[in-house]
Amino acid sequence: MILESELVEKLKSDTNIDSAFQDLVSLYKERLYWHIRNIVKSHDDADDVLQNTFIKVYKNIGNFKGESKLFSWMYRIATNEAITFINKNAKRLQITSEETQTIAINNLASDVYFEGEAIQLKLQKAIAALPQKQQLVFNMKYFEDLKFKEMSDILETSEGALKASYHIAVKKIQDYLTNN
Fold first, then answer.
1. What pTM value is reported for the model?
2. Fold of 116-180
3. Integer Cα distance of 135 and 15 in angstroms
4. What is the C-alpha to C-alpha distance for residues 88 and 1, in angstroms, rounded to an integer?
């Protein structure tokens, strides 16, 4: 297994960038896909956003300063790309980003790549009812099991604020599941 620092060095060199980028993609593709999928909900949309994320990483790796982990930097890009995707979709459809999320949740039941049961669909509806930041924090903690420190690096927010957002999100989800 290649060390992150070695990978960054290879990515920034002119000689091994294609090989290093393939290593990067194989290392992070699945984790980034599921992170994006939790935000945009649709498999096809997640694939598009993932591709855009890797294009941005490829074009901007020279700007990576190493102040955070490469993983955190890429997750930040993926998060921003997913949110941008939702907002562009909402603007194109002339609806709010919340309405876009509701449509995505309603389409989950017919998505051949969604293997959830009724309770998972209900959970996704509960998550979609949360404000965007709480959705992100909940998904990153609950589904991806990220530490608050990692989320802090990715979202550039204090750990305390993230813990508060997570606990508020959990309470809202519990209330939604109980009352719907």
1. 0.77
2. Arc Repressor Mutant, subunit A (1.10.10)
3. 41
4. 38
CATH class label, 1-115? mainly alpha
pLDDT tens digit at each of 180 positions of the chain: 567 778 888 888 877 788 888 989 999 999 999 999 988 888 889 999 999 999 999 899 888 887 788 888 999 999 999 999 988 987 887 877 777 777 777 666 656 566 666 777 788 889 988 988 999 999 999 988 999 999 998 888 999 999 999 999 999 999 999 998
Are the C-beta atoms of 101 and 59 separated by less than 8 Å? Answer: no
Domain ranges of the chain: 1-115, 116-180
CB 123 within 8 A of CB 114: no
